[in-house]
Amino acid sequence: MPTLPPFGDRMPGMDLRGLEKTVRMAAVAVSRADDVLIVSHIDADGISAAAIAATVCERLDKDYDVLFFSKMGEDAIAAVNNSSRSLVWISDLGSGYLSQLSKDGIVITDHHVPDSSWRRGQTSLGEFNRVIHVNPHDHGYDGSSEISGAGVTYLVAKSIDPANTDLACLAVVGACGDMQDSGNGLSGINRTILEDAVYEGGLEVKEDVRLYGRETRPLIGFLQYGSDPEVPGLFNDQEACSAFYAGLGIPLKKGNRNRCWTDLSENERGAAAEALLERVKEKDRAKLVGETYVLTDFPKGTDRRDAKEFATLLNSCGRYDDAPTGMRICMGDEDAVEASKENRSAHKRNISGAIDLVKKNDLLKVRRFIQYFDAGGEIKDTVLGIVAGMLLSGDGAYRGLPIIAFADSDDGVKVSARAERGMAERGLNLSEVMKKAASMVGGFGGGHNVAAGATIPGDRKEEFLDIVEDLVSAQVI
Ligand code: C5P
Ligand code: C5P
Ligand code: ZN
Known about the structure:
Elements: H1 16-32, E1 35-41, H2 44-59, E2 63-69, H3 74-81, E3 87-91, E4 106-109, H4 116-121, H5 125-130, E5 131-134, H6 149-160, H7 168-177, H8 189-200, E6 204-209, H9 219-224, H10 238-247, E7 253-254, E8 257-258, H11 266-279, H12 285-288, E9 289-294, H13 307-318, H14 323-330, H15 334-339, H16 341-360, E10 365-366, E11 371-374, H17 384-393, E12 403-409, E13 412-418, H18 421-425, H19 430-440, E14 444-447, E15 451-456, H20 461-475
Parallel strand pairs: 1-2, 1-3, 3-4, 4-5, 11-12
Antiparallel strand pairs: 6-9, 7-8, 10-11, 12-13, 13-15, 14-15
Helix pairs in contact: 1-6, 2-6, 2-7, 2-13, 2-14, 6-7, 7-8, 7-13, 13-14, 13-16, 19-20
Zinc ion (ZN) binds next to loops.
């Protein structure tokens, strides 16, 4: 193994030893367990995390089951507390709800902002043994940007057996699923994990245009819908995109087949990248061209070859009640890839339909410190956050305000909140806002500083918005 740098940069307050110690404790607990229940989140990060945990259990020859949940609600908490398995391994979930977990024998590998009341109440040694909580926030690292749920789960896998470093690429997919590569690539502990993945083979870091869909989007759509960053003059303008390629002599098709970005020759790609760089503002250049993560074991032109597209494939399963198919894909099951094809196209249709719905019906309402929309029963609660995030990064909302989205759900109203990362630098913490505001109206919530969510009673949306606006205005300077 090459000598790896410590997790991220060593900054004051970052307690690498403390993190390594809890990782080690979790590894011992998993290794000693008779049997395991894995409980994970339905999104790309949660599915990658579950696949890592399940692979570890298989390699240790342990009997295990996997359950997926969209949030740590009553059903998830009951499944954990009533489990007869000797160990429950919760990944990409759990930290925000620690005080409600009572089972003896829990390992949590998560990166959400932890439940502070649990840490304050945690006084006896017994409490420490009952729940082994591995979370970067407890050791001075930022769980929203430096490591994902799959990443924390991977650290435990690697501690159990260094041979598990072949799972590092799944942790990279998980981090991309949680948008931790936005800006100009993975950083912090994710960087160490990335180095493991590269060292293992199967993942290459390649400098390229970082817009979404390099492997599977037709060339026009790649520029027309690419919004992080948007290219002035091309974003949302099909004709201009077509003229852009024509001007460079780049054909859009090979025979009858649409070409995509990775079909371009090195020369074509270089010329197009340069022309794109000339169009964007100085501040967006590093975002536009930089690191991309190529999973080289998968064929060109498939979504599993690009870490971001792989993550979308997993979301297209998990957010539509089919997380086990996503997990099977991560574990190399080709039948699951075939079974997921319909999921992927349905997800694309749903997302673009949902964005159109908000735009065409002018659902977005703007207040002084926040903007919001209420999709009622028209957008599925599990994709509401993706839609809110895409509106914010595209042209569907104001970038400088947090966006709050509502959709009906089985147990009340689902809330998703998103904000640009720059707002977190100005003090915004949506996790805190969602947690406090939800509890003040009889609901619950949590998450990360720039991406959080909640479930609240259906008749308290207005009151909730007022509280959210007060909290946001107090946080942001
Ligand atoms: O529960 P978990 O941490 O996996 O979920 C985080 C969610 O927040 C993901 O769905 C991810 O896409 C979203 N996110 C976002 N923008 C960010 C960071 C995360 O939309 N900048
Ligand atoms: O569902 P959505 O993608 O909007 O969730 C964003 C973040 O908020 C995720 O990390 C999720 O785990 C968290 N969340 C939460 N409690 C809820 C709903 C979402 O902690 N009730
Ligand atoms: Zn996550």
